[in-house]
Amino acid sequence: MLSIRNLKASIEGKNILNGLDLEVKAGEVHAIMGPNGSGKSTLASVIAGRSEYEIEGGEITFNGKDIMELEPEERAAEGMFLAFQYPIEIPGVSNINFLKTAINEIRDYKGLGKMSAKEFLGRVKEKKEMVELKENLANRSVNVGFSGGEKKRNEIFQMAMLEPKLAILDETDSGLDIDALRIVANGVNRLKTKDNATIVITHYQRLLDYIVPDFVHVLYKGKIVKTGGKDLALELEEKGYDWLTKPEKETA
Amino acid sequence: MSQTLTADKKELFLESFRVSEGISGVSKAAELALENLDFPTTRDEYWKYTRLTKILNGRFSVEPFEGSEEVVSINERALHIECINGYFQSPVGEIQEGIEITSVEEVEEALVDYQNEFFSALNTAYFTSGIKIKIKAGVEIDKSIQVNFLSVNNNIQVQPRIEIELEPNASANFIFNWHHNGQEGNFYNVVSELKLHENAQLSLHQLQAGGDENFLINTTQVNQQRDSKFAIHTISLEGKVLRNNLNIAVEGENCESILNGVYLAYGSQHFDNHTYVDHIAPNCYSSENYKGVMDDKSTAVFNGKVMVQPNAQKINAFQSNQNILLSDDATINSKPELEIYADDVQCSHGSTTGQLDEEAVFYLRSRGVSEVSAKKMMIRAFVFDVLEEIKLESFKEHVEGLVEEKFKL
Question: Do B366 and A92 lie within an 8 Å CB cutoff?
Answer without folding.
Answer: no
